[in-house]
Amino acid sequence: MSSSLAEFADWQRNPDGIPIPPTKVPLKAQEIEEIEIECTGARVRVFKLNSKEDIQEYEKVLYDLAHQKKVRVGRDLEEFLKDEGTFLIVMRYIEIQGKIPKHIRDMEAQFDG
What we know:
113 residues, alpha+beta, two-stranded antiparallel sheet, 3 helices, 6 strands, elongated
């Protein structure tokens, strides 16, 4: 996963804390309150807790991104791998953000065009 906590630090948030991508045209308070949420990706990750790298990635999703509400984590599936002496965790999550309203996207297109 390439996302990081710092990447979303300056993003606006709706009242539920969902990040809203930056825009060239400022959003009105009512637009922020009523913004739709969109799924930008669905992921399944497998982590082995005997791997330092896997533990760091697992914590990144849980603490950085889930705390920043950039992802919604589903129920983890855990299994103890007796032959390896470690837990295997299968994590399912979706990446979410506020969906910029069409009229704002249209205005931004005028700036770019």
